Amino acid sequence: MSRREGHERNDPLAALNLPQALGSQALRLLGAIEQARTKTEAWRAADRAEGFTLGVETLRALNPADIEALYMAFDQALQLRLLELEQ
After folding, report:
1. Structural domain tally of the chain?
2. Within a domain: 19
């Protein structure tokens, strides 16, 4: 199995088949949420991700279903990170 295939299994954005520029930025934003050291950092990273998604939505760069999936991926990452930080 290639490194990319292994990465795709754990990548909640892989199913969206985003254009490279959008996908790279979305992965950076997702990583910032996942690596936040505090709840404040997690919320700040999630706010940036939401702003990014709003920009994508405003520009109509993706279809509505993919935009919703992007919002959901960022929200799920935030909820998971907040739970991890509570422990």
Report:
1. 1
2. no
